[in-house]
Amino acid sequence: MNNKLQWELESFQHNSKSTQSLKLSYDLFQESSLLDWQHRQVLSRGFKNMGNTCFINSTLQCLLYTPPLQNIIHRCKKVFCTLCCFKRLFKSSTRIPDDFLKYLPRFSQSFSLGKQEDAHELLRFLVERMERNVVRQIFGGVLRSKVQCLNCHFESEIYENFLDISLDLSDSDLERCLANFCKNEFLDGMNLYFCAPCGVRTVACKQFIIKSPPLILTLHLKRFTNEGKKDMTHVKFPEKLNFQPYLLMPEQSIYELYAVLVHMGYSSRSGHYYSYIKGPNNEWYIANDLSVLKVNLNKVLNDRSAYILFYKKSKVEDVDSDGADISLGKKKGRCLDFKEEKLREIKKMKIRGDGKENRRVKGCDGNKI
């Protein structure tokens, strides 16, 4: 290779690295400009309850103080654009959210004034009514679902977009609920997996994991059954959430709590909603219809009726050096031994091969069981 060609190659490689570095810096700058408040305004306005509209008031407060929704530049000419409505409401001093009370019953039969509804259903409706690109940029993430046959090791992967994550109340700790969401689930017994290469139903393992995390992480605690009955489990949740254990690719990913939507009562169709909001001035408030009062963080973190948790992506250097010890399947010395227990169960099963002897199969990690 002559000197000129060598120089051009080295120059190209250097420029490529510089371009990647600039893109990364620009992406981080974009995230920071969206997630950081541009002012330090005090949260002081509540919304009047117009008759069973507490589920609307509390949901609006959480979204109103989601920084990217106010920082992102957006204009449109739609009759009802929730993002435009949020921006108008944020700048006004009204205590009655007229736009939402007017248009919600028109655009969705699920919501009628005077009737208590599920705040999570309302949240999904409001977010999905925003411009698609805005939604993906702020709330959108990608989830990978993987199924592996334990007989022939065939793998099937599906990638799905998500706007929030619904968690079973499998534990009294949020991080353990997330770990259980991402752990291997064995498909056996009545839930055998049909493996196309094998041509029969076989034992398999299934796992969800996050491929691309969102800017705004919304965690929905599945408190209500299909019949509307409520699970009263007290789920502890942190102010700073290390999301790295639940990601497909190892990367530092820290989230900071900024809003909590709470439901008090015993049914999805009754009770009362209110919310905790971290204002632009970094102070915490409880927004309960018209009442807005300052509270301390301990009160927020110890509310036993949290229903929806809102986290925003945080800079890694902002995390305390003595943050929680979190790892997938383990937390502070407690092991998640579900996989080992299921492996022992499967080891006892007799999986017939050629009719003469039992075949041993491999687990999800490739080890014989």
From TrEMBL:
Keyword terms of this UniProt record: Hydrolase, Protease, Thiol protease, Ubl conjugation pathway
Location of the USP domain: 45-314
GO annotation, biological process: protein deubiquitination; proteolysis
Reaction(s) the record says it catalyses: Thiol-dependent hydrolysis of ester, thioester, amide, peptide and isopeptide bonds formed by the C-terminal Gly of ubiquitin (a 76-residue protein attached to proteins as an intracellular targeting signal)
Molecular function via GO: cysteine-type deubiquitinase activity
UniProt GO cellular component terms: cytosol; nucleus
Entry's EC annotation: 3.4.19.12
Family: Belongs to the peptidase C19 family.
Protein name, as recorded: ubiquitinyl hydrolase 1
